[in-house]
Amino acid sequence: MKPTAAPHIQPFAQRLTGQRKHPAPKRTRVSLPPGYDGCDRAYGEPGQCVPWRFPTGVADRCAWLRAHGFDPLPVHGRDRHRLDTNRDGIACGPGDNTAR
């Protein structure tokens, strides 16, 4: 077995104690208006972006959502697009009549 060299430690690292000199800044909660990023967060899962405004000329919003890879979406708040017409908590689900 070959002997191995001891690890080289940079001089600045020898002074580290693992404790912070200054406390981390306190986080502040920011209140953003609904639709600030163009997404309606009342629909879908985290990371999904149902548009706040659908493109001009879209007659069937659920068909547009399906064409863009969205499956039936859970509704987490106000159903402002009226995509859950049977009020089962799922937008564009079976039994919804949403061609508007």
Briefly, what is this?
Residues 18-29 have a biased composition (Basic residues). The chain is largely without helices or strands. It has one helix at 61-67, and strands at residues 73-74, 90-91.
Strand order of the largest sheet: 1-2
Radius of gyration from the CA trace? 26 Å
Give the ordered list of helices and strands. Answer: HEE
Task: Give average pLDDT, whole number.
Answer: 84
Q: How large is the count of helical segments?
A: 1
Total beta strands: 2
| Biggest sheet overview | 2 strands, antiparallel
Beta-strand share of residues = under 5%
**N-to-C terminal Cα separation, in Å?**
76 Å
Task: List unreliable stretches of 5+ residues.
Answer: none
Please identify the oligomeric state.
single chain
What share of the residues lie within helices?
under 10%
| Structural class by sheet pairing and helices | little secondary structure
Shape: elongated
General description of the model:
It contains one helix and two strands. By secondary structure, the protein is low in regular secondary structure. It has a domain at 35-100. The N and C termini lie far apart (76 Å). 7% of the residues lie in helices and 4% in strands. A two-stranded antiparallel sheet has the order 1-2. The longest helix is centred in the middle third of the chain and has 7 residues, at 61-67. The protein is elongated. Residues 18-29 have a biased composition (Basic residues). Residues 1-35, 73-100 are annotated as: Disordered. This is Excalibur calcium-binding domain-containing protein. It comes from Carbonactinospora thermoautotrophica.
